Amino acid sequence: MDTNQPASSASYTPAPAAPGLFGTKIPSSVSFAVGVLLFFMPFLDIKCNNMSLQKISGIELATGFHIKSPGGNNSLMGNFENSTGNKAESKGDKKDPNMFALAALVLGIGGFVVSLLNHRAGGFGGMLTGALSAAAMIGLMMDIKSDIKKELLGGKDGVTIAVEFTPWFYIAIIAFLAAAFFCYKRIQSTKN
Fold first, then answer.
1. Residue 51: beta bridge partners?
2. Cys-Cys crosslink for 90: which of 54, 81, 156, 173, Cβ 3.0 to 4.6 Å?
3. DSSP result, 107-130
């Protein structure tokens, strides 16, 4: 062994490991995008005596909508109202925007934008907006159920009106919770 060679004091430091799929912004961004796009699907199904009257999308819940009258324009009374010019009455009741649906939609869009940012801001902001979006959706469900109980205390003349949440509503909640989880995993991957 040659002792004339200078001893190298440089130590080998391995390159940092790749963050993996959970360390990227892809899963959280996709989850937020899916949650927001689900707002175009029907969230509520209004039924009268187990017969579907109207389906209401998440966008309609967030921006306001008209409840269609039970006969619609194809009934005899609907045709009579249209011919006499009372179109405003034939459209049904106008419902105001639901603040929980609007908050969930705005938080979902904000979460999507925040999840595209750098690791720390995207992780914490995305986790917060994902959890708040899911909470707003759950608040929407409780708000609608309490409104239905207030408005429909007992059916009149044997008519029962029910409002059911569609699977799209529940999938949107799961998408927002998944986005929050993916943002949490993103934060964990940056700490290692």
1. 48
2. 81
3. HHHHHHHHHTS-HHHHHHHHHHHH
State how far Cα 82 lies from the chain centre: 37
Residue type, 115: S
Among 179, 166, 171, smallest CA distance to 61 is for: 166
Position 14 in a domain: no
Residue type at 108 in one-letter notation = G
* pTM: predicted TM-score of the whole model, two decimal places: 0.75
In a domain, 28, yes or no: yes
User: Is 86 domain-assigned?
Assistant: yes
93-128 confidence digits (pLDDT tens)? 788 899 999 999 999 999 999 988 876 677 888 899
Any idea what the CATH number is for the domain that residue 77 is in? Answer: 1.20.140
Q: Which residues are within 8 A (CB) of 135 and not within 5 positions of it... i.e. 6 or more apart?
A: none
Q: Which of 143, 135, 147 is nearest to 172 (CA)?
A: 135
Q: Which domain holds residue 153?
A: 22-64+72-191
The CA–CA distances, whole Å, from 36 to 62, 72, 101, 157 equal 12, 30, 11, 40
What three-state secondary structure class fits 142?
Answer: helix
- 175 with 38: CB under 8 angstroms? yes
Query: Is residue 4 in a domain?
Result: no
* Number of compact structural domains in the chain: 1
